[in-house]
Amino acid sequence: MKHDGLVKGLLAAAALGLLLWGGIPLYRHRHFDVAVVTGPGVTGVARLSDYSPGLKHTLADTSVFILQGKEPGGKVVLLGDTHSNEPEGLLAALIFIENAVVEKGTVYVIPFFNNSGGRNTRPGDGYPLYFEVPTSWGAMKLRMGNRDASPLDQWPDPDVYVHYPDRQLLSFIDVRNVNRTWPGRRNGPLMEQVTFAAMEIMRRENVDIAVDMHGAETMFPVTNCIVAPEKSVRIATLAALTVKAAEGFENHVEPSPAGFRGLSHREIGDYSATLPFLLEAPIPFLDQPTGPKTTKFLLDGKDPFLLSLAKKKKLFVPYDESGWPLERRVGQHCSVILEILRQFSKKSPQKAIVIRGVPRYGEVVKNGVGHYYLDPGRADAKTIVMN
Amino acid sequence: MPLVMIGYYAISAFLLALLAWNFVREKKSPDNLVLYLLVMAPLVLRLLRVK
User: What residues in A contact B21, CB-CB < 8 Å?
Assistant: First the structure.
């Protein structure tokens, strides 16, 4: 080969250039922190590692926002971003943190439950690295994450994930999926330590209710619903009927299958006294036969291919030209949570959980999601938590 | 970081060193040079904890 050194030098420089071009945005995404402004109801901020020490100094550790009421009552844990490519849960959790004032009881909110997944990207699907929610004070920039934790934080994957403690064989990738690693264990893989921390909050603090917020494809049958095990199904049914009658949106109840292990709606109920609920809002962005995965599509949920499929009755939710915008998805989560708490409080008045300041479905649809977020640029620095 | 993960990083570093050595030693084929660089890319990204 002629000019051997020159050819190698040029090729190596080109490869280095490509690595930097592709790698720097990924590095920045992984280390990008979101400013969360603690609202008037937040009385403390803990860390997951306070409940599972193995998480300390890892990117799986994350903030737990505590909203303690003036009067004692029941306790609820709200989980957002269990799957970090389903941002409805995160955005609803942030609405609670920035707006809720608790009159009775205590609310624990973990908006970035799979913090490692929120710093991971989805290879091959052309997902954006970030998305922006419009607000009155500008665009609120958030990371678009992946369903699973980053292999930089938990690696290698096993050939088959043997679930703990049931020993059910699950897909290898589910070892990094925090909705398959419940109830977790103190010294297990990192994602089992994450779910163990949440279980410890529920056990130590005697939490009554846990709500895990998700989004699901319109072509997936378990969508637009509340998934509940036997012990939660009465409250879930009353909540579903009430929001349909009073607020005009559908949110049916799906039973939690007893034979499918590792899911929050199954294991939380089986391994603690807490009543679990898993909320699914339809997110067209996750469906496979769609156009490009743009941030606009993520926000408005409009896609011509899904519209065509809807006309052929291939979707599990109603779908028309208006798509399934973020406001509806987040508004549903807010209303269903408030309704679950109301039904629980009616059933157990001595453990009532009373919250004000959180908008319901109609208000979120009317005002937009961004209306409910505080401006970190104007907030007191002491009230900002970077996550 | 668990021991098995450290072991995997060590294996990645070893493979990267082998590829780099072959890249330096290659005298005949420019195609092989490109191939070595392509195979090195994910190993470099992993060792630098980028992806």
Answer: none
